[in-house]
UniProtKB/TrEMBL annotation:
Signal peptide (residue range): none
Sample GO molecular function, one term: ABC-type transporter activity
UniProt KW keywords: Membrane, Transmembrane, Transmembrane helix
Entry protein name: ABC-type transport system involved in multi-copper enzyme maturation permease subunit
Lineage: Bacteria, Bacillati, Bacillota, Bacilli, Bacillales
Biological source species: Paenibacillus phyllosphaerae
One family name in Pfam for this protein: ABC2_membrane_2
Spans traversing the lipid bilayer: 17-37, 57-78, 111-133, 153-171, 178-199, 257-276
GO annotations of cellular component type: plasma membrane
Domain of life: Bacteria
Amino acid sequence: MTMYVSAIFKELTRKRVFLVTLILTFIFMILFAVGVREVNSVIEGDQSSPAGRLLNSMVFMMLGMFFAQFLAAFFVLFSAMGSVTGEQENGLLLAVAARPISRWKLYLSKWLGHAVWVIAYSAFLFAAIVWTIHSIGGLPLLAGDVLRGFGLFIWMPLLLLTLTMLGSVYLPMLGNGICAALLYGFALFCGLVEGVASYQGPHPALEKFFLLTGLLLPTDSVYRRSLYELVGGGDWAGLAISDMGPFSIASVASNTYLLYTVVYMAVLLMLGCRAFNRKDL
């Protein structure tokens, strides 16, 4: 396991897109912290009420986490879209598969190797956003809310990673990256549309469509549940999630739905192991 984690890290560092991703991430975090500080100083100068400052901090939290999950998703796409067919094209996969190890174990090892770095990158984004809003924006946070939000935040890119690796067994690297990005973007778009549609009241046809989308790719629903937990769940979330336009959270994923995402990932991993075991190298 350690061998695959270090091997995948070496592979990532060889890709210039990985270095560019890290540089842009640090730039984003610096600009975000500066923006929060400047806006917070203006708000304090206007002598806003404590409730107003709290609401503004929650809005910044929602916007920051939205871009953070966007960055985490593209980190997954860039790192894992060619994990099987990409290595097959350059001949690396045949050399690795020649070792006396079951193919399904090799597939799971590659998934775990990618998952370690996806979790590390997502954890950095989450911690940076939360620390910025808490220390500069003054948003009070409870440890339990932060832990629940963190667990669900890293669960979202792991779901996308599982789907991307399954696609890499069947599709060429570029085609898999485009397909996974389109699916992720479609789920994100449906979440934004659902936030706008919530102003017009419930619509049965749209609700069924959003439910079907969430079942096919649950990344956006998990992200919104993560944000809901992070800002205090039912105690405080209503202050910020009811009037944010496309960023509004019209519905929150239930615990049953989260259990479905566990089964969803397990099924995709099983399908990936089975497909990789039958793949002609």
